[in-house]
Amino acid sequence: MASPPPGPPPPDTTVGGTVPSAPTTADDVPRPAAAPASRSPVGAPLVVLRGVQKHFGALHVLKDVDLSIGRGEVVVLVGPSGSGKSTLCRTINRLETIDEGTITIDGAPLPEEGRALARLRADVGMVFQSFNLFAHRTVLENVTLGPTKAKGVKPAAAKARAQELLARVGVADQAGKLPGQLSGGQQQRVAIARALAMDPKVMLFDEPTSALDPEMINEVLDVMTALAADGMTMLVVTHEMGFARRAAHRVVFMDRGQVVEQAEPEQFFAAPRSDRARDFLSKILTH
Amino acid sequence: MDEGYLARLGTLLEQYDVPAAFWVNIQLTFWAGLLALALGTVLAVMRISPVASLRALGAGYVTVLRNTPLTIILVFCTLGLWGQLGVTLSSDFTSNFFRLAVLGLAVYHAAFVCEALRSGVNTVPVGQAEAARALGLRFSQSARLVILPQAFRGAVAPLGNVLIALIKNSTVAAVASVAETSGLMRQMIEFRPDVVLGIFLVFALGYVVVVVPVGLATTALSRRLAVAR
């Protein structure tokens, strides 16, 4: 699958986030230039988390997390269940609030609840584990609702764009149906189209294939892989290690609320540096 | 029951216009129901809103109105609002009392509409609201476009129960001097106490005829409108 390197090498070297609390990772995150040529180039940091702390009551779910995602970068977040990866993903569009630290998107800190936050969320696409398509609206209406209501796009233009996106994710023929009439895989692809319709700067995927039957996982992963190849900035929480190998610029491993290790996928899967990552991989890759 | 009983009851029913009285109750129900639905929806939105003071206000309204007897509310609307405070809703004496009764019925049942709708909101998975917020919709848009349409569908059956209660509670408007069924029934009984059982059965049957279709319709509607997930 390797093809000759197209175009100039990626200009930026500030992709990897530093993780002061986890000495195993230091600042030796692989540079994007080392990524395989099939991956899109990575630009300046787009999403930056600094010193993020969060508690659920007595439970410390995010412990001083630093993470930086470059423009066009695909970051796959892995870790055992309960490690805080979904919570981290949800803090980026403030579906979860944080107790301490800062999160900036394109240089602007996340606003408090209100209109400014709504505007920011319009720029951050989110795909949920349980799809969360609007159950009372057709597939087409699900995709046009955001652009027409949150961005003031004319209905005709929104409809044309929605049909184009539905075709891109392979469900153009389902446009008039209600979400409940679709398979899980189809629903999730519609959910991706719905998020893309907002022309987001970054897409968050919170375990997008975990609720799917096995035969439907690939149809969703294929759409995500194509999206990654097109240069979309993505943060993906998943257990699909094949997708991580294929599409990610960087794998971030979390455990017990901390970023323990981050590396290029080839390096992470072949030679994880931390014991916890080795232990995690041995549990999921042995069968 | 002697043979003259039905004849006497029949004569009585010719003298008093029972269908007209029922029509008054239906009108009371219609206007009060419409107002209660509007006010109850506003209250339900307040109760699920992210603003704490609005939530408290909504909860306070429901607590006070739901726990006050309807008779007292209607007496207040006439003797309090009109008699003491001079609030008139119409220059016409009869329609003024009608409107005051509608107001009392509406503010009381709005509390129940609010709670029925809130039970409907609870049938909407939290992910629907999260998806709406994640798309960049503001709270008002999320509520109007995503949450409430589904909440109404989930609340058809409990809203039907509120409507049925409202139809029957509209007889309390008698205390607000509205000429409706229960007032008419009392007049008829005073005039012909010898056929009291017959009079009672006529009105009871009348209410069964009005209310049963409402129950059947809301049950059918709640099935048809159920959101497939």
From TrEMBL, chain B:
It is found in: Cell membrane. Keywords: Amino-acid transport, Cell membrane, Membrane, Transmembrane, Transmembrane helix, Transport. This is Glutamate transport system permease protein. GO terms for biological process: amino acid transport. PANTHER family: AMINO-ACID ABC TRANSPORTER PERMEASE PROTEIN YHDX-RELATED (PTHR30614:SF37), MEMBRANE COMPONENT OF AMINO ACID ABC TRANSPORTER (PTHR30614). GO terms for molecular function: transmembrane transporter activity. CDD domains: TM_PBP2. One of its GO terms (cellular component) is ATP-binding cassette (ABC) transporter complex. Residues 22-218 form the ABC transmembrane type-1 domain. It is a multi-pass membrane protein. It holds the Pfam family BPD_transp_1. The chain crosses the membrane at residues 20-46, 67-85, 97-117, 195-216. Belongs to the binding-protein-dependent transport system permease family. HisMQ subfamily.
